[in-house]
Specification:
OB fold (Dihydrolipoamide Acetyltransferase, E2P); disordered N terminus; 3 domains; 5-stranded mixed barrel; Rossmann fold; alpha/beta; 13 helices; about 25% strand; 9-stranded mixed sheet; about 30% helix
Length: about 375
């Protein structure tokens, strides 16, 4: 069987063909060998084409799909023309947009060949932003973009496996303290301004350069010892920064100072989505973000507040968010914890008098 041994249900094919015009159908009829295709009415011609292709066992995916506007032209071209198909196995994280999603690789970068998932496919498989999928994609004729035609795995599970939704997870009262593992003298924050699991914390500073970013790199190792999976996103760093970070083993992502603000925001949004999918599966997760102000595009402040405010502690899992930001980026009104870190006499110090912890105040 051609084109990767994929098959198409007759009903799905008939739905695709019915969306085509009579002129297109007659051309398809000629390609598939339907006799006298120019003389048949549309309904009869559709039936003849389906019968002909069924006899030829012509390919394309899949038993899951229904015909929609997305695949009328492009999917039929894949179906009828093997050289345009070029199937390939794909995997990666779903970066959700209004009209669907793009697939990013394990480093959260887009591949040279863009991979698109239309909205109807996401709805059919209950796909969400941050899902890690495996499947098959077909090369579409439009701008050399690949379109996903088969979903084989979602977050390590079979497609359409029943799962929880982060929005529906009921928040519980935060009681568990976390140890950040900061070096001296900043280790005092664990006592003076404790961070609770499932809280959102902002670290304020006037520091320039990546001094504060380096302080964040101590946290993942400590969290790992406490059973918390950490995603670390460092934005606007120097090209050498990633090589300088030696104490983060997994899930380290970063952009350099040449990256545009829109891409920084998309990375932050995707990391939060990935963390939510983990929490849905019962994981305890933390997101560390440097330079929160670097995701601000000028008109997305409410979206940033929403992402930062999505932390949650539940009985089955949790999402803890810790971010650094300049003093002039005002978002601390929705934070559970606020820490002030600065230089004094050439040394980094923790300003306890200006810092605040809602967990300590509950004690």
């Amino acid at each position: 069987m051609a084109n990767g041994n994929l098959t198409l249900e007759a009903g799905t094919l008939r739905g695709l063909l019915n969306k085509s015009g009579i002129v297109e159908l007659r051309e398809i009829g000629l390609q598939t060998g339907v006799a006298s295709s120019t003389t048949w009415e549309k309904e009869d011609l559709v039936n003849k084409i389906v019968e002909k292709l069924a006899a030829q066992k012509r390919p394309i995916n899949s038993t899951y799909y229904e015909a929609t506007d997305y695949d009328v032209n492009e999917l039929l071209k894949c179906y009828l023309n093997e050289k345009d198909y070029r199937p390939k196995e794909i995997e990666g994280y779903l970066d959700e947009y209004v009209y669907g999603a793009m697939v990013r690789n394990s480093e959260l970068k887009t591949e040279k060949d863009m991979i698109f998932i239309p909205r109807w496919v996401m709805e059919k498989f209950d796909l969400r932003g941050g899902d890690y999928i495996k499947g098959t994609a077909c090369l579409l004729s439009m701008n050399s973009v690949y379109g996903v035609i088969e979903v084989k795995e979602v977050n390590g599970l079979e497609p359409l496996t029943e799962r929880k939704n982060y929005i529906d997870l009921r928040a519980s009262q935060i009681k568990k303290k976390l140890v950040l593992g900061m070096p001296e003298p900043l280790d005092a924050v664990d006592v003076l301004t404790p961070v609770g699991e499932g809280m959102k914390t902002i670290i304020r500073t006037d520091l320039r350069g990546n001094a504060l970013s380096k302080l964040l790199t101590y946290i993942p190792e400590s969290f790992e010892q406490q059973g918390i999976k950490t995603y670390s996103l460092f934005l606007g760093e120097s090209p050498e920064f990633k090589n300088e970070v030696v104490n983060i083993k997994d899930n380290l992502f970063y952009t350099n100072f040449e990256e545009n603000v829109e891409e920084n925001y998309r990375m932050f949004s995707l990391i939060i989505d990935i963390a939510k999918r983990e929490v849905e599966m019962g994981q305890r997760v933390a997101v560390l973000l440097s330079r929160l102000e670097s995701v601000y595009t000028g008109d997305n402040f409410c979206k940033i507040r929403s992402l930062f405010g999505s932390s949650k502690y539940t009985k089955s899992g949790s999402l803890t968010i810790i971010t650094t930001a300049r003093r002039d980026f005002n978002i601390e009104d929705i934070a559970d914890n606020v820490m002030y870190v600065n230089y004094h006499n050439g040394s980094v110090f923790y300003d306890y008098l200006k810092s605040y912890s809602s967990l300590k105040n509950k004690e």
